[in-house]
Design goal:
The structure is a single chain. The protein is α+β, with helices and mostly antiparallel strands. The chain has seven helices and 16 strands. About 25% of the residues lie in helices and about 30% in strands. α2 crosses α3.
Length: about 300
């Protein structure tokens, strides 16, 4: 992966309907999104030239914008076509994509109903979020001091940039303390998610995951739930409190970046990545079309 800053690279970015040279993709310092967080985005992965569940990601991008009172000036099909155009222009087969929608600099202030809505798509080569060694033996999480807000406090169903500030703060604190990531609770004290991934627990052969009423119902999350059910595992969505982690034998994260990543520790709670983690890691790798990192057990 390139060590250059993200503003100084070769390649192209699709911006407001056309490809522009990477270094020319600029926004003004008075862009509304910079001052008031009026932007939404997606994180997507391409495997062997095919974007995993692109249509679902695009639909969520448009809906997230709607929740922030922004109408995307392109259709879903135009965005999908532009996504592949951007991949081809950058000669990327296996990579990460970042479509983003934001309010521009036409109006400054809390109100910005006359600001233009912009849209861009970028892509780059990005390896696994966690190293393969970490994925196989399980990563370590601490408990974040921050909580996910409730649905009356913020647009929690939108993938909005402003909602990620507590994720950045949580992950910085975790890394400084020697952990890989952090687990956030919601405003009720229930388990919510990690800083950029959904969480699952294996309890006596059943797969338990928090109900996504204060955080995103991840696209990878849903895909892995499908795989679990195909394996014959019972999948339970419910409110989960921190002390219940003592009853879990396995734990794993899911997300575009994390894919399927086992967890071996969350604060004082310990887990042993086992058969369920291995099977779902392998099944997910097969689903997206890459060689499995681990062998699965027979279904």
């Amino acid at each position: 992966m390139s060590t250059a800053g993200f503003d100084d690279r070769d390649g192209y970015i699709w911006m407001n309907g056309s490809l522009v040279p990477w270094r020319s993709a600029k926004v003004h310092v008075l862009t509304h999104a910079l001052h008031y967080a009026s932007s939404v985005f997606e994180g997507e992965r391409s495997y062997a030239g095919k974007v995993f569940r692109l249509e679902e990601h695009t639909d969520r991008l448009i809906d997230s914008a709607r929740q922030l009172d922004m109408k995307v000036p392109f259709t879903a099909q135009q965005i999908n076509d532009a996504t592949y155009e951007t991949l081809r222009a950058n000669n990327i087969s296996d990579g990460y994509l970042r479509p983003i929608v934001w309010r521009g600099s036409e109006q400054m202030g809390v109100t910005a109903q006359n600001a233009k809505i912009h849209c861009a798509i970028t892509c780059w080569v990005w390896p696994s979020y966690f190293t393969i060694d970490a994925r196989l033996k399980g990563i370590r999480l601490c408990m974040s001091e921050w909580q996910r807000p409730g649905p009356k406090m913020a647009p929690v169903k939108a993938k909005a940039s402003g909602l990620y500030m507590i994720c950045t703060l949580s992950k910085h604190a975790a890394e400084r303390a020697g952990y890989d990531d952090a687990l956030l609770l919601d405003w009720r004290g229930q388990i919510a998610e990690a800083t950029g991934a959904n969480i699952f627990f294996v309890m006596n052969g059943e797969v338990h995951t928090p109900t996504p009423d204060a955080f995103l119902d991840g696209i990878t999350r849903r895909a892995v739930m499908e795989l679990a059910r195909k394996r014959g595992y019972k999948v339970v969505e419910r409110a989960i409190f921190p002390e219940e982690m003592a009853k879990a034998q396995e734990c794993f994260l899911t997300g575009t970046a994390a894919e399927v990543t086992p967890v071996r520790e969350i604060g004082d709670y310990k887990f042993t990545p086992g058969e369920v983690c291995r099977n779902l890691m392998a099944d997910f790798d097969v689903m997206v079309g890459k060689a499995p990192a681990v062998k699965s057990s027979a279904a």
